[in-house]
Amino acid sequence: MSRGRTRIAYSSGGTLLHRLHPLVKLGWLLLGTVLVFAVQSPWVVLAILGGLGWMWRRLAPGRVRGLRLA
């Protein structure tokens, strides 16, 4: 096994996302995954994508490790 730089590591922070309990984050992830496949209205899907795009811009992708690749 390589002893190089760690690719995935905890980064401390004081944001709401950092303070949430991990099970709450898992619940939101599961709910979002189910909604993506269950929703049949294109308007709801567009609203979800718009919300994700808004959140993406607020994260400043250059600062968050791993988002630059995405």
Give the helix level as a range of percent. 55-70%
Q: Report mean pLDDT, rounded to a whole number.
A: 76
Radius of gyration: 15 Å
Distance between the termini: 26 Å
Number of strands: 0
Spell out the helices and strands N to C. HHH
* Largest beta-sheet details: none
Protein structure class: mainly alpha
- The gross shape turns out to be extended
Number of helix segments? 3
Pick out the low-confidence regions: none
Beta content comes to under 5%
Overall description:
The protein is mainly α. It has helices spanning 16-19, 22-38, 42-59. The chain is extended. The two termini are 26 Å apart. The mean pLDDT is 76.
What is this structure, in a nutshell?
The protein has helices spanning 16-19, 22-38, 42-59.
Output the keywords.
single chain; 70 residues; mainly alpha; 3 helices
Task: Please describe the topology of this protein.
Layout: H1 16-19, H2 22-38, H3 42-59
